[in-house]
Amino acid sequence: MRNFFMIWFLILILLLLFCPTSFALDAFDQAQIYLESGDIDRAIQILKPLTNSSNEDELSQVVEVLYTLFSEKGQNQDAIHVLQIFIEKFPRTQSAYLYRYWIAKTEEDNKKYQESLKLLQKIVAEYPTDIGDPFNIRQQAMEDIAHHQENYFGNYTEAINSYLTILSQYPDFEEKSRILLQVASCYEKMNQFDKAMEFYQKIRFQETDPYYLDLSELRIEYLQSDPTWTRKNSAILIKELGDAFAKKDLQAIESLAKKGDFWTGQMFSEFEIVRFSQIIPYFSTYLTQSTLQIHPAEKKENEYYILKITSWGDPDFPILYLYIEKGIYGWEWSKIVLSNPEIECQVNNFDDT
User: Fold this and answer.
1) 2 pLDDT more than 70
2) Which of 126, 199, 298, 349 is deepest in the core (most CB within 10 A)?
3) Which residues contact 22 (CB under 8 A, 6 or more apart)?
4) Where does the signal sequence lie (predicted)?
């Protein structure tokens, strides 16, 4: 929590430096003192009267700070309300549409997906053409609409149309391959693998970024493979994977790894996309040196399982996390995360805050 207060201390200082009048100097000074002492509630009470301001710049500064403080406390409805104060006073401004977008994202965090979708659709339909869009709010709202349709409502055909509409309305969109990947993902979920392959091939022929090239090629490999590594039941795969590690059977371990894009990485780092064959030398080095302890698998967010292995032979990363997720063919082992006691301590400290 201490880092949070330091961040907001700096933010408040910046607001004071760029504040065009002295309307809030005393209030912000007092709010800073309370934030430094960890008293968010008193800081909020000091700042709330400033929402009566009729100055657009001043009000936007206040509501952004209050929105963040309310969000930090988990008071999402209060966070939404403070943004609505600005929207009601200055409805046709860039900031107002930015705040409408924040409200939509907050409703998404609240798992009110229908309400979030309606707000996003309203932004896309009503964003004025004469005020500019420096935050790319309309474009981002279109992406979120497609994301909602794909992931929350399972409307894959609508999601595909929404993704492709983005590319047609924004021909200079810099991350076309990212959108095409989502289109391919929707076709995969519809079991239309040939159509998914078409879009992966498009990425291969038009993209120069190694990340998208590698991912599209690995997804093609995944779709073209005989999915012998999958199981219909997660418990079966977890048991087989645990047994393979307990026996230090590298051949069995390899046979259970997902083909195509297999993800690896260290906790708190970006993951790399690899073929499992690329990390076999790593397993060959450390598997025989390990006095493995295999812990019971834990279910996470009702979506996937993690099998934790300790006393792994790597002196720098003696902890492995194996991710078991449901793919289009069934349950599969698709990711490895490396960790160590120091990282675990950071995780615990983060959870405590």
Assistant:
1) no
2) 199
3) none
4) 1-24
Query: What structural domains and CATH numbers belong to the chain?
Result: 234-352 (3.10.450.50)
How far is it, in rounded angstroms, from Cα 273 to Cα 227? 18
Strand partners, 306: 298, 323
Strand positions, DSSP E, the chain: 262-266, 272-274, 293-294, 298-300, 304-310, 319-326, 331-339
Higher-confidence residue: 34 or 135? 135
Q: In whole angstroms, give the CA distance from residue 79 to residue 72.
A: 9
Q: How far is the C-alpha of 310 from the C-alpha of 318, rounded, in Å?
A: 6
**Two structure tokens written together for 84:** 């609505």
Look at the block and give the residue holding tokens 């981002």: 140
Give the bridge partners for 309, in sequence order.
294, 320
φ/ψ of 205, rounded to 5, equals -85, -20
pLDDT band at 138 (very low <50, low <70, confident <90, very high): very high
pLDDT tens, position by position, 230-276: 999 999 999 999 999 999 999 999 999 999 999 999 988 888 889 99
Going by C-alpha positions, the residue among 151, 107, 76 that lies closest to residue 122 is 107
The dihedral formed by the CA atoms of 317, 318, 323 and 329, expressed in degrees to the nearest 10? 90
Sequence length of the chain is 353
Cα separation, 253 vs 306, in Å, equals 16
